[in-house]
Amino acid sequence: MTAVRGGGGGTTLLVIAKEPVPGRVKTRLTPYWTPRQAAELAEAALADTLEAGLALPAGRHVLVLDGKPGPWLPAGYQVVAQAAGGLDARLAAAFAGCDGPALLIGMDTPQVTAELLRPVFADAAWQECDAWFGPAADGGFWALGLAEPRRPGLLLGVPMSTARTGAVQRARLTAAGLRVRDLPVLLDVDEPADAVEVARAAPRTRFARAVAELGALRRGPAGADRPPASRVPSGPAPGPAHATTGDRPAAGTPPRTAPDAAR
Prior knowledge:
By secondary structure, this protein is of the alpha/beta class. It has seven helices and eight strands; from the N terminus they run E-H-E-E-H-E-H-E-E-H-E-H-H-H-E.
């Protein structure tokens, strides 16, 4: 993978994603939607994510892509190819190409905003902080930031897309002595019910418009109006990001996924 070098300094934003090709992305949205419709939703989610990233004062904006860029790619991003190997290796390689602090997010949280990510890009973001962790509602994680990104041991060997992903990844950070700050819990889009819930929570996004055009906001996929309780985080709404060196599992139910890079 091409290294991410130079730039005006500051924290690098990494967006790891798949080219939205029918049959290769958001396959768990089928058969409720066709592969082409699922790819249209994936493209909208990716476009929303990339747009939010451009509003951040990142030293570099980098798309770590499995596939080829398309008309959905805005100006301002450097595109590098994903490395070979499992998802843990690809995430580690994406970080390893950075000179300084970096934040990595995926493409399946189209409700993400620049305001939500801005603490990671603030002047004091890395003071008394070595890592940022964004837990997902299903127990995985949607964001990971590292002050020292060239430490592949922080990621290699973490089981991806399992019931332990988020907890294991966060524990790996704290076991290495890193001081971790947490971002709010977000629901990532894996199932049709998730798509409807996220669209309703972020109605001004391209993703919400795409879901509405498919008619799902009016009728909803089976169970979409009432997502399974296991997919909704319990407890109070997340507060401001805070630092801790304790081994605290990600909020919500047992962890399952990492950012949707090439699942």
